[in-house]
Amino acid sequence: MNRLLAMVVSSFIVGLVHAASAQTVTADKPGPAADTHAAKAVTLQLRKGVVEFAFNPDALATFGMRMGEVKDASTRTRGAPGVRYEVVAFTARTDSDLQIKRRGAAVVWIGEGALRFAGGFVLDYPGGSVDLRQFALRASGGAGLGIDIVDADGRVWLTADHAHYGFADDAPNGFSMTHMNLRLAPRFAQILRRPELAQAAVGNLEFHASTDADASAQDASGPDALGAKCSAPWPAPGRVTDIEVFESNLSGFRDSIYAPRCGLPPLPNGGACTATSTNGRLVLGADASLRNIGKTAVAWYGHFSGNHPPYDNDQHPILIWNLYRVDSGGRIRQIGASGVKHAFYSINKNCG
Q: What integer pLDDT is reported at residue 29 of this predicted model?
């Protein structure tokens, strides 16, 4: 594997062109964009949660870590390097809660409190271990939608960011944050004596919890309601429809590129990548944030979810990643391209 001096990711395709070209979209037919001027922020309490950790065994091995004791997991799938993640799930204690603030259909803040868990796990590393039995989830300092994973003494060992979040359509008091990047906190990097590993990705996290009240019941309560109307028109001739790919730091961490696996398997014995590696296998992943900067709604739906207006299909974003090498002389040369990624969480319910 040639050492990359720089990486550039490009070639986003942010929507499928609708096939029904003869279909007419009228101006008075609303689409799912936002009109949230009347929405008042409301604080809700999350309780009765379930959290799932998915650790990348290749990343753990590269950093000299491994899963130790696991206590009171509701489910567990043992990981295998290069094959599957180590997945463990735990149920929150009933005497704990975590605040969230909702404005319209969007969650804008995670506040006080914590979801606490009686179970947990131990992460071993050379010369010691981090005990996350009786861990808790709480708001990440300085990150509006970030999560800290703390031990029984309140010390932060892991963080999670870049959540897909929302309330369930079929259970309006059910809230989820899913597909989050799970990272080593600076404290963990320090005890590994590798401070450069602070915020290194080691897997994924998701959790599901219930609010203390049915949020949908408050949506119809007048101008201060939670449920702001989505009222932008669908695309049509003469209306500007535009999507922007941007670098987001909504959760406190900027979009970035990750290498969840790098080296010769099995890691670490096969040899993890270093600054002077000349061969190996590299797996890359990347964050992608898109937003509507046009004057119309954008017809995006969860892929393979059926037919929806205005085009009677399940239009959704798709993305392609190109990889380039920038050599020491400034020449840019394409060295790779991904397959097509279907954006599986394209939704229109979090207007705002």
A: 39
